[in-house]
Amino acid sequence: MKATVLLTALVSAALAAPLSAATEAEAAAGREIVKKNADAIVSVELVVNGGAGGRGGRGSAEQKVEVNATVISPTGLTVTSLTAIDPRVGRGRGSSDNSDSEFKEVKLRLADNTEIPAMVVLKDAELDLAFIAPLAGAGPAKTYPYLNLEDAGKAEVLGTYFDMTRLPKNMQRTPVIQVVSVLGMIERPRKLILTTDQTLGCPVFDMKGKPLGIALAYLSNNTAIQIVVVPAEDIVDMAKQAAAVKAVPMPVGPVDVVK
């Protein structure tokens, strides 16, 4: 089974779901969010080697993966779903079983189609977080369009919000946005936001254009069972650790956070 089968099905179902017409205020707010933030939604392309635990224990298998992600700092630090880039996460395997997955040929594909060599610098299976950073010295220094997660919005049940994503290559990677609503919030063991629709690795915004957080997979018994929105403040805490990791090619795998 390809790593993206379940995730692609979830995204396709969301895009196929009937949408009610947005009010004039919602439409205006949505257009402004796309205008200001579309360039922060990028693609991560990589090859993942699942390690020695392949099907039937017969060695490893390499897979090409392309997923949506969100740039969250002017230096290009980017966040996405670990489940989306690593087929060994969220399939009923323990977190220690996926720690030897190797990511190769990692690159960020920006909104203008520019390819930036990059690497996975930090991952956390519990929160389904993967952070990717441009390789140091891979090109001239630049400032990236980014989403400021430190200026976050507040989720309220049945409030009006927006899910923004970017379509795949065969649809010209077009940015799209839709109105969503918060259905509820899980408070323990950590806060998670439940919305009507969401796209892995992409943000959900409030009417003022402030992000609630990033859509990631919720794991139960090491199995991905639901897409949820992880609050921006939790991602900011992990991003500080990721920013401290220098993105240079290393002979060993990326740093893991041990819970």
Give a concise summary.
By secondary structure, the protein is an alpha+beta fold. Helices cover 16% and strands 36% of the residues.
Report on this structure.
This protein is of the alpha+beta class. 16% of the residues lie in helices and 36% in strands. The chain has helices spanning 5-16, 24-37, 82-85, 232-243; strands at residues 41-49, 62-71, 78-81, 102-109, 115-124, 129-134, 160-166, 175-186, 192-195, 203-205, 211-220, 223-231, 255-256. It has a six-stranded antiparallel β-barrel. A hairpin with an 8-residue loop joins β7 and β8. The radius of gyration is 17 Å and the shape is globular. The two termini are 29 Å apart.
Please give the share of residues in helix: 10-25%
**Helix-strand pattern:** HHEEEHEEEEEEEEEHE
The gyration radius over C-alpha positions equals: 17 Å
Largest sheet: 6 strands, antiparallel, barrel
Jot down its keywords.
259 residues; alpha+beta
Helix and strand layout, with pairings?
Blueprint: H1 5-16, H2 24-37, E1 41-49, E2 62-71, E3 78-81, H3 82-85, E4 102-109, E5 115-124, E6 129-134, E7 160-166, E8 175-186, E9 192-195, E10 203-205, E11 211-220, E12 223-231, H4 232-243, E13 255-256
Parallel strand pairs: 5-13
Antiparallel strand pairs: 1-2, 1-4, 2-3, 3-6, 4-5, 5-6, 7-8, 7-10, 8-9, 10-11, 11-12
